[in-house]
From TrEMBL:
PROSITE patterns: HEXOKINASE_1, HEXOKINASE_2. Residues 505-518 have a biased composition (Basic and acidic residues). It comes from Oryzias javanicus (Javanese ricefish). GO terms for cellular component: cytosol; mitochondrion. Residues 505-560 are annotated as: Disordered. Belongs to the hexokinase family. This is Phosphotransferase. Residues 524-536 have a biased composition (Polar residues). Its EC number is 2.7.1.-. The lineage of its organism: Eukaryota, Metazoa, Chordata, Craniata, Vertebrata. InterPro entries: ATPase_NBD, Hexokinase, Hexokinase_BS, Hexokinase_C, Hexokinase_N. It is an enzyme of class 2 (transferase).
Length: 560
C-alpha cells in the first residue's frame, strides 16, 4: 500500500523461509484497494442500520443514543459512575465543578468479574455489581446519599430512553443468562432493591464510545467521533437527525452508536476473513457474532497470533515442528505479548522471553518469524479500523456538503494506547482512505468514568429544566399572569421554543423540545463555554421518539 508505514520486521529471516511463511501471512495483507472496498461496504451497511425498516436486519446496528447535547458548563454536583465492559468492573465517584468547569474523579474502585459470573446468571452479575457499589459507597462514606448514576455499559443496547436500555446481545466473553432482551437499568435497580441497604438517584446509560466522545468534547470543540479499540471495538459519531430515520425529527444531530463490531455478521467480509479468523469465531462463545471485532480487538488478536504460530509449527516452519502444551492451549498467547514483541528496541528480546515462557524450543529465526506474525496481525487490525473510521469521517464530510472536513476523534482502549505503532499505522491509513478529511486523534481521559458522569450531569440538568417547565405549565390562571409561558415557533419543523419568565427566573434561558410528543427538553446554551460544534442549540437527551416501527422484512423505503 503506498504511504505504507507498516513496520514489518523481515530482517534476519532467510529468503526461502520468508517465502514459505509469507504464503500463510499473505491473506492478512490488505491492499489500499481492498480497504477502500471494505469502507464502501461499511458505508452501505451504515445506511441500512440507519433505515427506518432495514435496521432490523442490519449487521451494523447504528443505534440512536438520544444524546444530542453536551455540557453547557452549568452542570454540577456529585455523581456515581459504573463502568462495565471488559473483564473488570469499575465504580467511581465523580464531582463536576461548575465554576471551574472541571470534572474530578474523587475516587474509584476496580472489582474483578470472575469468569463464573461472566458466564453465570444475570441475577448473579447484577448482585455482584450491587455488592461492589455498596462496598464503594461505604469506603467513600456516601451510603446515606442518593446520587445520580452514570452507567457505562459497553455492549450493544437498544436505547429506549436515557434510563432504559435493552441489551441486544453480549459480546467480549460475557454470556450471562436472562439479560439479552431485558432492560439493564431495571436489572441493576432490582439488584439494589434486593439488598435494600442503599439508594441511587436517576440513572443514565452510556456506551463507552459515547462517554469517550463526551469527555473529549469537553476539551475539543470539534470532537464528534468516539472510538474504542480495546477488549472490543466500536465507534459513535454525530449524525444528522434527518438521516436517523428511526427517530422522529429532522433538526440537529444525534450521536449514533454504530456497533461496527458486528460488521460482516451477514457474510459481507467473507473474502477478507482468513482461516484463522474462522477458527477464532468457531471456538468463541458467540460464533457468527461480531465478525469485524474478532479481526481487530484485544480480546482476539493474541489468539489469532497463536493460531498462526501453531499452523507454522505444524508446517515445520517454526520450533522444529514441535508445538508446546502452551501453544496448543487456546488463550495462551496474550494480546499484550504482541505489543511487547513489537517494541522497537526490546522487541526481539521480549519475543525470546515469551517463547521461553510458552515452553517452545526456539532459535533466533523463530523469534524473528514470531515478531513478523505479530506485525502482520496487528497491522491488519489497524488498517481495518482505519477503513471503518475513514468511512465515518467521509460520511460526516458528505453529510455536510463540505469539500474538506476537520474533525477530532476521541479515542480509548488498550490496543490503541499500548501497542507501539498501532496508532501511527491507523492514522496513516486514515489519511489515505479519507484524503479530504483532516482527522485529529485525542486520547480520552477516562471517558467511561468521567464521560458517563458528564452525560448524567447533562441529563439531570435537562430533566430538572423539564420538570420546572412542567410545573409552570400546570399553574393556576392567576399565577399564569405572573409566570408567563410563551410558546414560539422557531421555524424548525416540529420544534417549539418555550421561554419561561416570571417566578422561575432561573429558567429564563430558552428551552427547545417536543415535550408533548414524549421528548425531553433542553436549554439553549447562552454564554456557553467551549462546546463541540455538534452541540446543536437546545438539543437534548431526549426520550424516544421512535416512529411506527415495522417488523423485519416489511416493505418501506430506507433512503438516507
Ligand atoms: C460492544 C460495544 C463497545 C465495544 C468497546 C463491543 O463489544 O459491542 O458496545 O462499545 O465493545 O468496548
Amino acid at each position: 500500500m503506498s504511504g505504507d508505514t507498516a513496520t514489518l520486521h523481515l530482517d534476519g529471516i532467510p529468503p526461502h523461509m520468508l517465502s514459505e511463511v509469507e504464503k500463510h501471512l499473505k491473506p492478512f495483507r490488505l491492499s489500499l484497494e481492498k480497504l477502500q472496498e471494505v469502507s464502501a461496504r461499511l458505508r452501505k451497511d451504515m445506511l441500512r442500520g440507519l433505515g427506518k425498516h432495514a435496521h432490523h436486519r442490519a449487521a451494523v446496528k447504528m443505534l440512536p443514543t438520544f444524546v444530542r447535547a453536551t455540557p453547557d458548563g452549568t452542570e454540577k454536583g456529585d455523581f456515581l459512575a459504573l463502568d462495565l465492559g471488559g473483564t473488570n468492573f469499575r465504580v467511581l465517584h465523580v464531582r463536576v465543578l461548575e465554576e471551574e468547569q472541571r470534572v474530578l474523579k474523587m475516587d474509584s474502585q476496580i472489582c474483578a468479574i470472575p469468569q463464573e459470573i461472566m458466564l453465570g446468571t444475570g441475577e448473579k452479575l447484577f448482585d455482584h455489581i450491587a455488592a461492589c457499589l455498596a462496598e464503594f459507597l461505604d469506603s467513600q462514606k456516601l451510603r446515606g446519599q442518593t446520587l445520580p448514576l452514570g452507567f457505562t455499559f459497553s455492549f450493544p443496547c437498544e436505547q429506549k430512553e436515557i434510563d432504559k436500555s435493552i441489551l441486544i446481545r453480549w459480546t467480549k466473553g460475557f454470556n450471562c443468562s436472562g439479560v439479552e432482551g431485558e432492560d439493564v437499568v431495571r436489572l441493576l435497580k432490582e439488584a439494589i432493591h434486593r439488598r435494600g441497604d442503599y439508594h441511587i438517584g436517576s440513572v443514565a446509560m452510556v456506551n463507552d464510545t459515547v462517554g469517550t466522545m463526551m469527555s473529549c468534547g469537553y476539551r475539543d470543540q470539534s470532537c464528534e467521533i468516539g472510538m474504542i479499540i480495546g477488549t472490543g471495538t466500536n465507534a459513535c459519531y454525530m449524525e444528522e437527525m434527518k438521516n436517523v430515520k428511526r427517530v422522529e425529527g429532522e433538526d440537529g444531530r444525534m450521536c449514533i452508536n454504530t456497533e461496527w463490531g458486528g460488521f460482516g455478521d451477514d457474510g459481507s467480509l467473507k473474502d477478507v476473513l482468513t482461516e484463522f479468523d474462522e477458527e477464532v469465531d468457531r471456538t468463541s462463545i458467540n460464533p457468527g457474532v461480531h465478525t469485524f471485532e474478532k479481526m481487530i480487538s484485544g480480546m482476539y488478536l493474541g489468539e489469532i497470533v497463536r493460531l498462526v504460530l501453531l499452523k507454522l509449527t505444524q508446517e515445520k516452519l517454526l520450533f522444529k515442528g514441535c508445538p508446546s502444551e502452551a501453544l496448543l492451549s487456546p488463550g495462551s498467547f496474550e494480546t499484550k505479548f504482541i505489543s511487547e514483541i513489537e517494541e522497537p528496541d526490546t522487541g526481539l528480546e521480549n519475543a525470546k522471553k515469551i517463547l521461553t515462557k510458552l515452553a517452545l524450543d526456539w532459535d533466533l529465526v523463530d523469534a524473528r518469524v514470531a515478531r513478523l506474525v505479530c506485525d502482520t496481525v496487528s497491522s491488519r487490525s489497524a488498517r481495518l479500523c482505519a477503513a471503518a473510521l475513514a468511512t465515518i469521517a467521509n460520511r460526516i464530510r458528505t453529510n455536510r456538503g463540505l469539500d474538506h472536513l476537520k474533525t477530532t476523534v476521541g479515542v480509548d482502549g488498550t490496543v490503541y494506547r499500548k501497542h507501539p505503532n498501532f496508532s501511527d499505522e491507523l492514522q496513516a491509513a486514515v489519511r489515505l482512505l479519507a484524503p479530504k478529511c483532516d482527522v485529529t486523534f485525542l486520547i480520552s481521559e477516562d471517558g467511561s468514568g468521567k464521560g458517563a458522569a458528564m452525560v448524567t450531569a447533562v441529563a439531570q440538568r435537562l430533566a430538572l429544566q423539564s420538570r420546572l417547565l412542567e410545573d409552570s405549565d400546570g399553574e393556576d390562571e392567576e399565577e399564569e399572569e405572573e409566570e408567563k409561558v410563551i410558546v414560539l415557533r422557531t421555524g424548525q419543523a416540529g420544534c417549539r421554543r418555550l421561554c419561561v419568565s416570571g417566578r422561575n427566573k432561573d429558567l429564563s434561558k430558552s428551552v427547545e423540545g417536543k415535550r408533548d410528543e414524549g421528548a425531553g427538553s433542553g436549554r439553549e446554551p447562552t454564554n456557553t463555554p467551549a462546546q463541540p460544534t455538534w452541540n446543536t442549540p437546545g438539543a437534548a437527551l431526549t426520550r424516544e421518539q421512535v416512529s411506527g416501527d415495522r417488523k423485519a422484512g416489511e416493505p418501506g423505503t430506507d433512503e438516507v
